[in-house]
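Schema walkthrough. Field components (list of strings):
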Amino acid sequence: MIVAERKPLDEIKRFIEGFERVLVVGCGGCATVCLAGGEAEVKIVGSALRIAARKEGRRQEVLEDCVTRQCEPEFVEQILVRVKEEGVTALLSLACGVGVNFLAERLGDIPVFPGLNTKFFGATAEPGVWVEMCAGCGNCMLHLTGGICPVARCSKSLLNGPCGGSTDGKCEISPDVDCGWALIVERMKRLGTLDQLAEITPARDWSSSPHGGPRRVVREDLRELAAEAEENSAAAS
Amino acid sequence: MKSGSNLERVLEAGHFTVTAEIGPPMGCNGEVVLEKARLLKGCADAFNITDCQTAVVRMSSIASAVLVMREGLEPVMQMTCRDRNRIAIQADILGAAALGIRNCLCIAGDHQSFGAAGRLKGHPGAKNVYDVDSIQLVSILKGLRDDGQQQGGDEVEMRPPLFIGAVWTPLGDPIDFRPFRLAKKVEAGTDFIQTQGIYDMELFRQQMAIAREMGLHERVAILAGIIVPRNLGMLRYMNSSVAGVTVPEELMGRMAAARKAAGEDKAQARRNQEEEGIRITVELIEQAQETEGVRGVHIQAIEWEQKVPEIVERAGLMPRPVMPAEG
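Field assembly_structure (string):
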């Protein structure tokens, strides 16, 4: 999932201070799973903002909503409708950065502010702890490294083994951070595939990663299906 | 000859080789580098110029290398993967070669979160690069030199004559993987290796035995790294906090005894420890010399460079051979 963490309330409050009618929007996807921006968190943030406005004597109405996912047109539609019908003057999104962007492109002259800091693609290691496991670099090499990613889990994204900074399975940046390459070596030992690491991984092509510019995925087969469906429905009516 | 560098020639001639390290200053005073160069002239075959070690901004390795060349020293320019992408790296390598630099050591570089292990602020908020890793960097330099080709495939009009080095941390974790990592560096085209500082010679010799079984010592010149210990605190720090460095109890005991012998006299305690540190260094150099497959030592006297001539002298490695350049 995309792991996110709520921004400090003080920072959120400053974003929306000057707006009369603010809609706080949660997301039922990743932000809910990582307990940062789901229905429950919308309620918490909403009430905190109302209390702050009352205390500071500001006239501000705080509305709440939560959609299935803030990254798909069909789900954000209900938000756009509410904004128009209820005279919302600003949005606070508790989705990841994708949700904020997606709304910003659709909101015309209404501003949307981020309520979360989007962290990484990760998993729940234990209750209350999430760890990064994928860098979204666009050209997966996990088949070469026992399923453990050196791009995301080595602090230097080294592709040919651990640097000299690995100690007792930990990274040189912190004793709290596992050395990604120690994990890879251990894993490949267990799989009996350690000898595969003798092969030199050449300098890689990073153009599939964010370094190549904003990325998009196009599936022509799906686009054609969608176009066909549209034609059929037009013909039917 | 790949590069014709003094380092290459001394190794080629079969001499036990000595390299030492010069750390550039945290300012633009070139005189600091020149002064260190004058102090060290003649006591080693080549001098590593560090590249913003521990991720602290210092005078660049290329500029400092050119400065030491003015004093007649041969530099080993260090190049980290932390601060430059493959475009900047290759541009700097071509520039360095044009300026007469013949040795380059390829390293990943300490992570920017280091900041001199907390003694300085550093730049922990910097964005790092790591476009390529140290092994890929070796391959890139080899490609420029031997194939006349940039990493991207374009041709190099004039090939840089470089003696290519890399680092090996023989006692780093995971320790059983370390010989394989060395093998990869050799496979990529490394000409010489400088190791992380060794105090535990026994463990190092075990790793060297594995390297010899793999035939690596015949394909690459291995120089054992020796970090000159100055006092007990430094040994303790290195043992606990520097990755890949373990200090045997015996050495720490010797340093503790040297300190204790001075009683309450702090100045004497310092002198005792410094003398013991140099004695330990000389012994380590001798032990490295007796280790099969080790073809030299790389001496790091961090912010204590002026002691290197005495160390090399006492290790019986002076004077250094004078190798006339070809042609």
